[in-house]
Specification:
Blueprint: E1 2-10, H1 14-21, H2 27-30, E2 34-39, E3 50-57, E4 60-72, E5 76-83, E6 86-97, E7 100-111, H3 114-119, H4 123-147
Antiparallel strand pairs: 1-7, 2-3, 3-4, 4-5, 5-6, 6-7
Length: about 150
Amino acid sequence: MARFTLKKYVEAPPEKVFQLLTDFSRLPEVVEAIQKIDVVTDGPVGVGTKFNETRVMFKREATELMEITAFDSPRSFTLSCNSCGAQMDSVHTLTPMGEGTEIELSLSAKPLSFFAKMMSFMTKFMLKGCIKAVEKDLDNIKVAVETS
């Protein structure tokens, strides 16, 4: 299983950060890599909310069906999806720090299919690219929250 955790300090309260992170209609305007998000469920954002996220990853456009599998506003939420034969979970945890918030994003990928298990040896090479992409996403979030 591949996993990593990144942290980013944002000069804004957790409520404001959480609001942006879960405002799926606004994220394509904020995060450079996200091209489009189409929410496919009705009602307020929470456990069970599903959306198709189209983003550029490794210089290619890809669309994944994401689902919120845990939701504790304004402290944390988990996005999950099955991608390329692997179960992907990204846990977003917001911790108040002084007058701001520390965003902690933990991403894990567990291979499920035979092909994904066979390709898991390449994870180390791909992990660097994933970390770089997520760091860029967090930088975009930081700028958007702090300037709005």
